[in-house]
Amino acid sequence: MIQFLLLMSRQGKIRLSKWYVTLSQKEQAKIIREVCQAALGRSARLSSMFEVEGRKYVGRRYASLYFIACVDKTDNELITLEIIHHFVEVLDQYFGNVCELDLIFNFHRAYFILDEVLLGGELLLSNKRATLAYIDRLDVAAERSEARLEGSSFVDQMTNAIKGV
C-alpha cells in the first residue's frame, strides 16, 4: 500500500501531497524535509528506490517534478513505479503534457485526478480511458451547473439550493 505520495519541484517545493496514513503535521513536515533532502541530493544514475529512517520510498523524476511514494516494506517497488507512471500519463492526457504550472494553478483538479487513480493508497482503476472519460463527464456537468447559476440571481440560486434543484 502507498502510505503517501509527494510531488515536488527541483527546488524542493511540494506541489501535491496525499497522505493515506494518519500522521501529525509535525511528523509530516519532518518526513517531507527528510525526503526532499534525500531525493534532491541523489544522482540521476542511482536507483529510484531508497530508504530514509526505516521507510521505503519509490520515486521518479518527470521533467521538473519528482513523484515520490512511500510504500510498505513488503510492496513491490516496480508496481509502485508503474502506478506513478500511470498517474503521470493520466495527468498528461488531461492537461496535455502536464507541467509544474498546471499543478500550481489547477491543484484542485490534480487532487481530483489522484483521487480517481488511487483510493486509500491502492490503484483504483488501471484503465486510463475510463478514468479520463469519467473526469470529462464531471467537468461537463460542472460547466453546465456553473452556466445555469450564472444566469440567475443570488435569490434564485439560494431558492434552487433549498429546493434541491
TrEMBL record:
Main location: membrane
Cellular component aspect of the GO annotation: AP-1 adaptor complex; cytosol
Record domain AP complex mu/sigma subunit: where: 1-140
UniProt xrefs under SUPFAM superfamilies: SNARE-like
Compartments in which it is found: Cytoplasmic vesicle, Clathrin-coated vesicle membrane; Golgi apparatus
Superkingdom as given in the UniProt entry: Eukaryota
One Gene Ontology term from the biological process aspect of the record: vesicle-mediated transport
Keywords: Cytoplasmic vesicle, Golgi apparatus, Membrane, Protein transport, Transport
Family per record: Belongs to the adaptor complexes small subunit family.
Protein name, UniProt field: AP complex subunit sigma
